[in-house]
């Protein structure tokens, strides 16, 4: 009872990112994967890679699937998807299939300013083949109606 308690503190620069849930397509229900006995021998006999693989270029299958996922997200106030509205400024896919997206909103006072980037991150992260998704919300350059595609302008009666 007379023991003193000691409080320990730890300083960290930033919290660790939590692991994201992924659906494994390696196993089917009821099927187990057997580990090969010589798996380590094959791994150790491989020569190290000389260079990292190049980032995924626009126009590739994964890039197109990410764009299709973005086209499935609609602005709640405007009946047009965020890609055709011109809210997506840049989609970059790294060699490790890490997707970085720069996007904006129609206005900083948009009611979905807190939830839209999270929804984009979840939808893009769910695309098969994507390792991780990161969304950066930017305000420069500001969005204007000229950034919309012709399809979006037609849908809104601006053409």
Give an overview of the whole structure.
By secondary structure, the chain is of the alpha+beta class. The protein has four helices and three strands, in the order ααββαβα. It has a three-stranded mixed β-sheet with strand order 1-2-3, covered by helices on one side.
In short:
This protein is an alpha+beta fold and about 160 residues long. It is built from 4 helices and 3 strands. A hairpin with a 4-residue loop joins strand 1 and strand 2.
User: Looking at the structure, what is the overall shape?
Assistant: flat
In terms of DSSP E residues, the strand content is 5-15%
Number of strand elements: 3
Radius of gyration: 22 Å
Widest beta sheet: strand line-up: 1-2-3
Order of helices and strands: HHEEHEH
The CA-CA distance between the termini, in Å, is: 80 Å
Low-confidence stretches: none
Mean pLDDT reading: 81
Structure class: alpha+beta
Structure annotation, total helices: 4
- Give helix % range: 10-25%
For the biggest sheet, the summary is: 3 strands, mixed
Layout: helices, strands, pairs:
Layout: H1 39-45, H2 61-71, E1 88-93, E2 98-103, H3 116-125, E3 132-137, H4 150-155
Parallel strand pairs: 2-3
Antiparallel strand pairs: 1-2
Provide key terms for this protein.
159 residues, alpha+beta, three-stranded mixed β-sheet, 11% strand
């Amino acid at each position: 009872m007379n023991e003193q308690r000691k409080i320990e503190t730890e300083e960290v620069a930033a919290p660790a990112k939590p692991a994201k849930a992924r659906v494994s397509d390696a196993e089917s229900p009821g099927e187990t994967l057997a580990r090969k006995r010589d798996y380590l021998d094959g791994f150790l006999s491989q020569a190290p890679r000389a260079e990292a693989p190049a980032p995924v270029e626009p126009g590739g299958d994964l890039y197109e699937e990410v764009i299709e996922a973005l086209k499935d997200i609609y602005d709640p106030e405007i009946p047009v998807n965020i890609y055709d509205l011109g809210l997506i400024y840049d989609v970059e896919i790294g060699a490790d299939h890490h997707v970085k997206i720069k996007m904006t909103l129609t206005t900083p006072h948009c009611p979905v300013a807190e939830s839209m980037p999270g929804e984009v991150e979840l939808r893009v992260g769910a695309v098969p083949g994507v390792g991780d998704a990161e969304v950066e919300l930017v305000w420069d350059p500001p969005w204007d109606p000229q950034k919309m595609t012709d399809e979006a302008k037609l849908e809104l009666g601006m053409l």
